[in-house]
């Protein structure tokens, strides 16, 4: 301290000033992550660094999404109708929509995506919301189509047939679908590109079913393709969403302590189509000692029991339901309960990013219902292998958490952005296609050449 | 100057030092374009800026490509065989491959891509070459498959049947294809993912035809789908490449001065399949005064004449050949001669980025061969509209210049990177698919719902 000079040489000050000025320009006048510089300008920069990640200079601009300002009845109005049907004392429309609560259900992605788009601060999102449709790459249609399916009163209002589309004040999902299309088909941006650049959410397998052929050019956000034909939806054009999990995530560490039962399942024993396997699984599993398999419908109490069961089992059975997907899979994942998937037609969310073989066990239906087979196979899996699965489950958990800021919502948008090049291609191609008489539809496909694989794990 | 203080206050120095230190950390310890920070870490940064381009934080890492070190005979060896067959005095193998010249031809993309990948400085490319296959997202197989098709001697060597696969020193493309597959099928990275992550170039419609079913999982770089079935190739899985233009680009400005003929075509009058339209077009066009339509084969002299014709015509006819594509289209584009495309099945390169309706006129075959129709339609197009087309042609020209540093090569790689999410999806999905008996192939498709569009311009 005694040696400290009270007076520094101007040279040092000059150097410091220069560095400080450079810092100022570099730090505060450049965005943290500058947008792609052109090849020319970047190579002319006096401080350019030839980094190996040079490709980012060619990275595409962010995908711009326009949120349609739909008439209120298609968004908040659906929630209000739902609530009003269950509690007629509620006064609607509510004054402050921020008090409006979307009901807890497995198809709530429509609410999460809408809420995300109207947020002020969308920092970290893979898409940018634009307010001018002229700027948009894609158009999001935020109709709450899944809630609309169940917005009717649970019990018929006396004297009114709820199935009728005529009943004055009674909510009709079909009328809503028709009304949405009437509104949309008037929009210039809908007409401009035949809907290729429009995004619809229809997470419930029956959502938008009346108008699906009119929107099939669009990107559909769905749970599976169980009720959709090949020309309506596909892995190439559309996005598979996870259901919202309905039970609480398991908070503890990985491990088999406290997970005393081998296999757990609770749900409806009787289902249609692929879901018929359920009854057969009940038959081969219900007498097994370390297996908990229960018939039960959705309720607060059954969710409590399912939580307890999934948090205390090593494996969780996921048989097909009426369609190949079900929310139970995502309940199992957040419970760190290794899913045992018996659903031959299942499509899984975000499968480009997630290797499901690392987090789940796949068994084809025929093998799964052989007496004794499933439990014998599961009992053979060593503890280290179980811990490996659990560790992987933990790592991918965020993909299934709609309320995680870096979770499901961002991942759905990322998936949507991946569709953009094909959307643009189809728009441009359709414009110049000449009239052709074809023997088969004009389709571009990606086919699995897998002739069959033994179920393995 | 007289007021300059020789001695600065320590406070200022402290501030400057602090700023300089911050600058040092911020500038020199952070790459120019840092890789995606996690959402959490970026929002905790003391100097985080909430920019509208926040999405770049979620931008994917660069796509990493491994270039197979194929036995020499599949790359430089093909060029040598080709040259040797034409000039037996050449001594091969050459000592210095940098002297080896790939022959000028329309299928030279295989040479350009290979040369690009082995370049030291790949700055500005949408992909990064990795030297360890473990790091790779995609694997490039650089066999010169198109040149291999024509590497045989033009005239049979006396006493040897060039069509025989047995002839000792005679080059056999079919043997090369078989030999490539034998080599590849031994590679662990080929076996690992059933070839989904492999990239092949087969620009000539006949290239790799013998083994196409063994490589069809891969990304194929092709000119069109004329000789490929739907389960072998598609717009979704593969990439359409432009041919290398064979005539010199038009250097001048846009304009109609010096472009006195209305429509130009020079090429083979007689072709198979869709190309049969050519003879009909000759019949309706050859008597028109301001139309130049000539029968001619590939030669240096015909290229000179084609250059002159394309540089001095407003429109250039592009009828289908044996397959829907042909290099003539790209000759026309770089000539700023507005292409008139009469090829009902044509697929076009980079159509997500290029709106071909802005640079070309599409006429279906039936309409094009109606006597008087085509010329009448073209004569009606006003000069302003012609200049608009030319301006657009000028803007997209770089996409068709293989030697432009920001041209075709980068665009092909960009197209390849766009396939990666679907490649990863198919890899993961195939691993967990259970054996299924299906009535039809397991395909995901993107279908045009266009039932027909009147040719317009």
Automatic annotation (TrEMBL), chains A, B:
Transmembrane segments: 12-32
Subcellular locations according to the entry: Golgi apparatus membrane
Protein keywords: Glycosyltransferase, Golgi apparatus, Membrane, Signal-anchor, Transferase, Transmembrane, Transmembrane helix
Domain annotation Exostosin GT47: ranges: 61-377
InterPro entries referenced in this protein's UniProt entry, alphabetically: Exostosin (IPR004263), Exostosin_GT47 (IPR040911)
The keyword Transmembrane helix is assigned to this record: yes
PANTHER family in the record: ARABINOSYLTRANSFERASE ARAD1-RELATED, EXOSTOSIN HEPARAN SULFATE GLYCOSYLTRANSFERASE -RELATED
Similarity annotation: Belongs to the glycosyltransferase 47 family.
Record protein name field: Exostosin GT47 domain-containing protein
Origin species: Papaver atlanticum
């Amino acid at each position: 301290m005694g040696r400290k000079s009270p007076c520094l040489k101007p040279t040092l000050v000059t150097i410091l000033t220069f560095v400080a000025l450079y810092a100022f320009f570099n730090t505060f006048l450049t965005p943290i992550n500058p947008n792609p510089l052109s090849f020319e300008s970047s190579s002319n920069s006096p401080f350019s660094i030839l980094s190996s990640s040079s490709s980012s200079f060619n990275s595409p601009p962010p995908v711009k999404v326009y949120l349609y300002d739909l008439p209120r009845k298609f968004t908040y109005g659906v929630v209000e109708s739902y609530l009003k049907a269950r509690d007629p004392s509620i006064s609607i429309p509510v004054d402050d929509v921020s008090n409006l609560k979307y009901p807890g259900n497995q198809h709530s992605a429509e609410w999460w995506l809408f809420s995300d788009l109207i947020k002020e601060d969308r920092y970290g999102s893979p898409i940018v919301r634009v307010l001018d449709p002229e700027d948009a790459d894609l158009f999001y249609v935020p109709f709450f189509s899944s809630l609309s399916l169940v917005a009717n009163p649970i019990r018929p209002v006396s004297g009114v047939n709820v199935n009728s589309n005529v009943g004055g004040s009674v909510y009709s999902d079909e009328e809503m679908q028709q009304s949405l299309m009437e509104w949309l088909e008037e929009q210039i941006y809908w007409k401009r590109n035949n809907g290729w650049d429009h995004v619809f959410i229809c997470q419930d397998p029956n959502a938008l079913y009346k108008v699906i052929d009119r929107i099939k050019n669009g990107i559909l956000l769905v749970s599976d393709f169980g009720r959709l034909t090949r020309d309506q939806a596909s892995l190439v054009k559309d996005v598979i969403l996870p259901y919202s999990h309905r039970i609480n995530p398991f908070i503890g560490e990985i491990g088999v302590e406290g997970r005393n039962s081998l296999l757990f399942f609770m749900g409806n024993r009787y289902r249609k189509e692929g879901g018929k396997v359920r009854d057969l699984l009940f038959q081969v599993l219900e007498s097994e000692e370390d297996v908990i398999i229960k018939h039960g419908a959705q309720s607060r109490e059954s969710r409590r029991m399912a939580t307890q069961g999934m948090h205390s089992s090593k494996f969780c059975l996921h048989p097909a339901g009426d369609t190949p997907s079900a929310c139970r899979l995502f309940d199992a994942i957040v419970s760190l309960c290794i899913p045992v998937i018996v659903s031959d037609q299942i499509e899984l969310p975000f499968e480009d990013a997630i290797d499901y073989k690392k987090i789940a066990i796949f068994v084809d239906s025929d093998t799964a219902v052989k007496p004794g087979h499933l439990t014998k196979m599961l009992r053979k899996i060593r503890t280290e292998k179980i811990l490996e699965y659990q560790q992987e489950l933990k790592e991918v958990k965020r993909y299934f958490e709609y309320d995680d800021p870096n979770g499901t919502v961002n991942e759905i948008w990322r998936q949507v952005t991946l569709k953009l090049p094909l959307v643009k291609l189809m728009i441009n191609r359709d414009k110049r296609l000449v009239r052709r008489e074809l023997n088969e539809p004009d389709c571009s496909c990606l086919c699995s050449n897998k002739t069959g694989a033994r179920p393995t794990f």
